[in-house]
Amino acid sequence: MLEERETAARxxxxxxxxxxxxxxxxxxxxxxELDRRVIAREELIEALAASAAETTAVTxxxxxxxxxxxxxxxxxxxxxxxxxxxxxxxxxxxxxxxLEVVQERAPAGQGPLKAREIAVQLGLxxxxxxxxxxxxxxxxxxxxxxxxxDTSGMFSAGQRPVAVSDAGPSA
Length: 171
What we know:
Blueprint: H1 2-63, H2 93-105, H3 115-121, H4 128-143, E1 147-149, E2 155-157
Helix pairs in contact: 2-4, 3-4
């Protein structure tokens, strides 16, 4: 009877050792993923800080009326609040294209556009994901004063200064 218990204990210990080895491998993979995510977050913070510094430089340059070349925006860069004299070229290409589509419609007196209509004008598929991407970008342009969004969710041309919050940069 003691031998049976000893054998059962050995089997249990061996099973637990195998489980511990498997969990050690899983833990190592999870630690590697965590390290990658920490590094990505730190890189993002640095990139956003650099972008904010560029935006501040653009603001100061505009205030001094010095005509320095604008930094070339990259996809995913922040949308600065609109103010008089700020060129459209500070916006990322996707935002510039949305702005162009909406502004082209204004002189013709055709009224505001839905996000789906903007997507069609941009040559995008009208899948929900694409339309939501356009809606998100158009809404961000409206929040920053580059476009006007009416209560029905349609977008039209128009610019207005907006109050800048200290909530941190967002794309």
